[in-house]
């Protein structure tokens, strides 16, 4: 390139500008305006200029020839001939006029920062002292490119994926990815193997860090919605240092879609959603067929001011950590819309879930829900019928209603929830000796020789574990009902674990008796499965407790009031 005075041959075009060549707009003799560039010094002292952004002002056919009699540019030839070059000490430059008054910031200064705002620390040049004593300049994310290897960015972690492992013919390994945001833009970064061990425990979601050094490579847009042509791969010289002073950096950016709009959203669309967690389900475990690995899942039911509710499925750690007991506001960035059972949402490994986000939308929603939303009968756009794990629109019934509505008399089991008080426990035969192997709860046969035989495992064991099947009579103000409680729900009602109770039964009959006495007259929320079963030509409703938890009196009172209102409307 020549500016009419000097020529320089070591210019390189950044890959994103390749189209200029392909479209033959950039050719000999055309006139260009260089908007953004980076000067890299090679080891031998030569400089290479990477052109990051340029406009062709006049095409070659219009210009037609060289302008002036330029001579090759030589360093040290005097300042008067270096009109467009910047101080040699700095690795990155913008156009000289852009650098005035904002010298701390890299090439994209005017694009993203006002003159009063500095990157990193307010009011000063941002340098980060690394443990080795060297300093590197903090640059904006938007200026990162593969032609520069020494850089530091100061960025907030807006997404942190879980560690994933792979195994193929070339070996095995693990990786995790994060998404980083500063005021100039966003970028995705991935750590592999050793870097996973080093950085996964260190990096926390929503915190700000200085990230120094890493490979930059062209981003695979197929796998990410992050708006950057490049992505970072950590290597063994990468360092990550917490930054305490970065309140001004943006946090996770959402573009929320109202829940009511999801009904008209295409399957597999990626959306941001915010809602109050009206209710949530217990965790369940499923086995992923492809990897034969067991993962946790949990459905949560989110409602917004549109009065609609949607079921979102959380996975893995996210499912295990989630606590919906105080009806938090939940914001999800990048959930996938599924048409499984009406419309529902799946939280992906690339999604970000923020509970009670510190945002105006969240405050507005909280205020609305606490004042009126909680009394609203919302309709779910997700299909909540069916199995025991779907309990979004909790089917609250009194025991009398469950009987008079013939629940469980159909072909399929019915599920309902009620509040009931324990009035009688049948302690006879409530415990049995079961196979000690994991996941096998088959009753064992006492061989009377110190060994216990499991027919299912076809093995004899020197020990057994106690399991429980407890018949409980529960009552509300109109009715009572015998229900069967298995292990976990029996342990909740008796307040003791089965192993301890088994020991008591053998050694201290009176203490065992007391446990049952003490369990009487406590009230719980029961989720009950009812199904007509036939034994010896006799049909009767079998009621099984699927879940039992303490009564949330506040919630219960709210439901009572809602029922009274509903009845009042029906009665006119
Ligand atoms: Zn067994």
Automatic annotation (TrEMBL):
Q: Which InterPro entries match?
A: Euk_RPA1_DBD_C (IPR047192), NA-bd_OB-fold (IPR012340), NA-bd_OB_tRNA (IPR004365), Rep_factor-A_C (IPR013955), Rep_factor-A_N (IPR007199), REPA_OB_2 (IPR031657), Rfa1 (IPR004591)
Per the record, what is one GO cellular component?
Answer: PML body
The record, for Pfam families, names: Rep-A_N, Rep_fac-A_C, REPA_OB_2, tRNA_anti-codon
Q: Where is the OB domain?
A: 151-230
Cite the entry's keywords alphabetically. Answer: DNA replication, DNA-binding, Metal-binding, Nucleus, Zinc, Zinc-finger
Bias regions of kind Polar residues — which residues? 77-111
Q: Which SUPFAM superfamilies match?
A: Nucleic acid-binding proteins
Q: Where is this region: Disordered?
A: 71-115
Q: Which residues form the Replication protein A OB domain?
A: 259-356
Where is the Replication factor A C-terminal domain positioned along the sequence?
415-560
- What exactly does this protein do? As part of the heterotrimeric replication protein A complex (RPA/RP-A), binds and stabilizes single-stranded DNA intermediates, that form during DNA replication or upon DNA stress. It prevents their reannealing and in parallel, recruits and activates different proteins and complexes involved in DNA metabolism. Thereby, it plays an essential role both in DNA replication and the cellular response to DNA damage.
The protein depicted here goes by the name Replication protein A subunit
Which organism does this record belong to?
Chrysemys picta bellii (Western painted turtle)
Name of the gene encoding the protein in the UniProt record = RPA1
């Amino acid at each position: 390139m020549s500016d009419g005075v000097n020529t320089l041959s070591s210019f390189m075009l950044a890959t994103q500008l390749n189209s200029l060549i392909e479209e033959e707009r950039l050719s000999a003799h055309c006139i260009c305006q260089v908007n953004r560039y980076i000067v890299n010094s090679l080891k031998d002292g030569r400089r290479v200029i990477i052109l990051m952004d340029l406009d062709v002002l006049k095409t070659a056919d219009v210009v037609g020839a060289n302008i002036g009699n330029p001579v090759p540019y030589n360093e040290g030839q005097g300042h008067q001939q270096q009109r467009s070059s910047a101080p040699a000490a700095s690795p990155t430059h913008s156009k000289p006029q852009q650098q005035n008054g904002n010298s701390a910031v890299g090439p994209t200064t005017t694009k993203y920062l006002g003159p009063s705002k500095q990157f990193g620390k307010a009011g000063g040049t941002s340098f980060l002292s690394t443990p080795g004593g060297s300093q590197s300049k903090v640059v904006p994310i938007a200026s990162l490119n593969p032609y520069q290897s020494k850089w530091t960015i100061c960025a907030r972690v807006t997404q942190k994926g879980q560690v994933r492992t792979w195994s193929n013919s070339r070996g095995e390994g693990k990786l995790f990815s994060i998404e980083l945001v500063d005021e100039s833009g966003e970028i995705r970064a991935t750590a592999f193997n050793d870097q996973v061990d080093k950085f996964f425990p260190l990096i926390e979601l929503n915190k700000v860090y200085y990230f120094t050094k890493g490979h930059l490579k062209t981003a695979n847009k197929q796998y990410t919605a992050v708006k950057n042509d490049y992505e970072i791969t950590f290597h063994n010289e990468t360092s990550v240092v917490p930054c305490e002073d970065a309140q001004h950096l943006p946090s996770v950016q959402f573009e929320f879609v109202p829940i009511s709009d999801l009904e008209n959203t295409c399957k597999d669309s990626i959306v941001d959603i915010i809602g109050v967690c009206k209710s949530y389900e217990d965790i369940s475990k499923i086995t992923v067929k492809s990897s034969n690995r067991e993962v946790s899942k949990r459905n949560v039911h989110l409602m917004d001011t549109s009065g609609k509710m949607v079921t979102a499925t959380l996975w893995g750690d996210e499912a295990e950590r989630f606590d919906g007991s105080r009806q938090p506001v939940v914001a999800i960035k990048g959930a996938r819309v599924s048409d499984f059972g009406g419309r529902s949402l799946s939280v992906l490994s690339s999604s970000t879930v923020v509970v009670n986000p510190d945002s105006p939308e969240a405050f507005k929603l909280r205020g609305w829900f606490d004042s009126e939303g909680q009394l609203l009968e919302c309709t779910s756009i997700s299909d909540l019928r069916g199995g025991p794990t779907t309990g979004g629109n909790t089917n609250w019934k009194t025991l009398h209603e469950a009987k008079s509505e013939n629940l469980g008399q159909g072909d399929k089991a019915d599920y309902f929830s009620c509040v009931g008080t324990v009035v009688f426990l049948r302690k006879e035969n409530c415990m049995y000796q079961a196979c000690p192997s994991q996941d096998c709860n088959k009753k064992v046969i006492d061989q009377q020789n110190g060994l216990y035989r499991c027919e299912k495992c076809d093995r004899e064991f020197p020990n057994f574990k106690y399991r429980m099947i407890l018949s409980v009579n529960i009552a509300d103000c109109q009715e009572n009902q015998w229900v069967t409680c298995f292990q976990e729900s029996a342990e909740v009602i008796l307040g003791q674990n089965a192993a301890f109770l088994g020991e008591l039964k053998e050694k201290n009959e009176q203490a065992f008796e007391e446990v049952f006495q003490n369990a009487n007259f406590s009230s719980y929320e029961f989720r009950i499965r009812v199904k007509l079963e036939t034994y010896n030509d006799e049909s009767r409703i079998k009621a099984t407790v699927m879940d039992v938890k303490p009564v949330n009196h506040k919630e219960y009172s709210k439901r009572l009031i809602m029922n009274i209102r509903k009845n009042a409307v029906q009665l006119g």
